[in-house]
Design brief:
The complex is a heterodimer of chains A (about 130) and B (about 350). With about 130 residues, chain A is of the alpha+beta class. Chain A has helices at about 30-35, 90-95, 120-125, and strands spanning about 10, 15-20, 25-30, 40-45, 50, 55-65, 65-70, 75-80, 105. Chain A has one domain: RNA polymerase II/Efflux pump adaptor protein, barrel-sandwich hybrid domain (OB fold (Dihydrolipoamide Acetyltransferase, E2P), Beta Barrel), CATH 2.40.50. The model of chain A has no long low-confidence stretch (mean pLDDT about 95). Classes of the chains: A alpha+beta (about 130), B alpha+beta (about 350).
Chain lengths: ~130, ~350
């Protein structure tokens, strides 16, 4: 299955994407993740101000049949939450890299970014699944 | 363990279905989207490969009295060519499985059981047969089973030439031949919609599957089947029903005919005081899932969700839950705990939606 993996983003093996904007990082789930989950019907996100460690659960995304945890790719503080996803979780299927971004996190440790996968690495990782 | 495959396994792969193991079989979970599959069944027609289910054939002079003896529902007085849904219970009233028995003739009964329970049911039923003059055959490998479900099912089967314009009420059956193939068509299903289940040879099932798809019938997987049955509150073995509960715990009083002659479990069920009550709950926000705690308003743990999902039709989280009878709140105020947050639930006395079956 062909996957949409934008070259300008960084990825995790938990199928999250990140985009750096100044000292904050935008986080969402990848096209592969939304396609594997199927119809997304519920998204639960953290409160603004929550402190996250890398690999910590920051929320939940549910399809009709399944519940999946969302893992923070990096450590930091949640500064913005896409609360619109509460009412329109289906955006996660339609625009996983666009309007369905999930949270923005102010980085506490910029060096963690180097541990994330490039688009190429993520593509290679997907081919091993 | 070998992975079992239904006769249509290759067709599922050709359609790029998402496959998953179920009851030892590699089964299609979904083809397109669960939502679209549910909507197709509610508004038009969908087809399910349920060839994994088990079929036992009981034949002989005592076939009907034997089936009547092993199930709790009344089979003896059912008319010829009728289908009867029933639990299959042990002497102590606990449920081994739930099944549909089809009265094909005065001397021939077809029993359809859950795939996950084929061996358990077979061992149980064969062990109870000695006093009865009938034979028992496990034909689970011989039959394919397709379920075509949805308001347009009748019209489509007529178009295929499988149904003539005859009286064919809900929960009845007919034996038929189609191009020299013996088939059994039952107006039964697990979706709440009008529809048919067709027992046939594997060869015929492949033909029918392709034919139905060519007529625009949507292939549907186990995921949408589960949502469909939950929206109309049909119980599922392993969830609402299990080895520990009796039909009287699980809302199946209507299937236990205590007035009929001797049947397995009768003595126990006559005296039985239910320990559980099966309730239907919905949420305004959040999705209940199997295993979640159900609390009363004072936050006492009173039961567990047995099945839960997002309803495609209502757009709400819906659940069935087994509640301990002596803790069941009189005010019908329930709370479902999801990831340590308490969500107030609505109690429903009826199913979440009304299916359109005849």
């Amino acid at each position: 299955m062909a996957q949409n993996i934008p070259a300008d983003l960084k990825y995790t093996k938990d199928h999250e994407w990140t985009k750096v904007e100044g000292d904050t990082v935008i986080i969402g789930i990848t096209d592969f993740a939304q396609s594997a989950l199927g119809d997304i019907v519920f998204v639960e996100l953290p409160e603004i101000g929550k402190t996250l460690n890398a690999h910590q659960t920051f929320g939940v995304v549910e399809s009709i049949k399944s519940v999946s945890d969302l893992y923070s790719p990096i450590s930091g503080t949640v500064v913005e939450v896409n609360s619109g996803l509460q009412d329109t979780p289906e955006l996660c299927n339609a625009e996983p890299y666009g309007s369905a971004w999930m949270i923005k996190v102010k980085l506490s440790n910029t060096s963690e970014m180097s541990a994330l996968l490039s688009a190429n690495d993520y593509q290679n990782f997907l081919s091993t699944l | 363990m070998t992975i079992l495959k239904t006769s249509l396994h290759e067709e599922h792969l050709l359609l790029n279905a998402k496959m998953a193991p179920f009851a030892g079989f590699d089964m299609p979970l979904q083809y397109s989207s669960v939502k679209e599959e549910v909507q197709a069944v509610r508004s038009f027609a969908g087809v399910f490969d349920v060839g994994h289910m088990g079929e036992f054939l009981v034949e002989g002079p005592d076939a009907i009295s034997f089936v009547d003896y092993i199930i709790t529902n009344d089979f003896k007085n059912a008319e010829l060519l009728k289908a009867v849904y029933s639990p299959l219970c042990r002497e102590d009233g606990t449920i081994i499985d739930d099944l549909i028995a089809y009265k094909l003739s005065e001397v021939k009964v077809l029993i359809c059981v859950n795939a996950s329970n084929i061996k358990k049911d077979w061992d149980w039923i064969s062990s109870k047969k000695s006093q009865f003059n009938c034979t028992l055959k496990n034909q689970s490998d011989d039959f394919s089973l397709l379920a075509i479900q949805g308001p347009e099912s009748e019209k489509i089967l007529k178009e295929v030439g499988l149904l003539k314009s005859v009286e064919f009420p809900y929960y009845s059956i007919l034996e038929s031949t189609f191009e020299d193939q013996n088939i059994i068509i039952a107006r039964t299903g697990y979706t709440g919609e009008d529809g048919f289940e067709i027992f046939s040879s594997h060869q015929f099932a492949k033909f029918l599957w392709k034919k139905l798809l060519s007529l625009g019938v949507k292939p549907c997987g186990l995921a949408s089947r589960d949502v469909l049955r939950l929206e109309v509150c049909y119980p599922l073995y392993g969830h609402e029903l299990n080895d520990q509960v009796t039909p009287l715990d699980a809302g199946l009083l209507w299937t236990v005919k205590l007035a009929k002659n001797e049947f397995i479990g009768k003595a126990a069920l006559l005296d039985y005081k239910p320990r559980y009550q099966l309730v239907k709950l919905s949420l305004d926000r959040g999705i209940p899932r199997e295993g979640y705690d159900v609390l009363d308003e004072q936050l006492n743990l009173i039961g567990k969700v047995t099945s839960g999902t997002m309803s495609v039709v209502t757009g709400k989280g819906i659940a069935m839950a087994l509640i301990e009878k002596d803790k069941n709140p009189k005010d019908k105020k329930y709370i479902i705990n999801i990831r340590n947050t308490n969500y107030p639930a609505h109690f429903h006395s009826k199913a979440f939606i009304t299916g359109g079956h005849k």
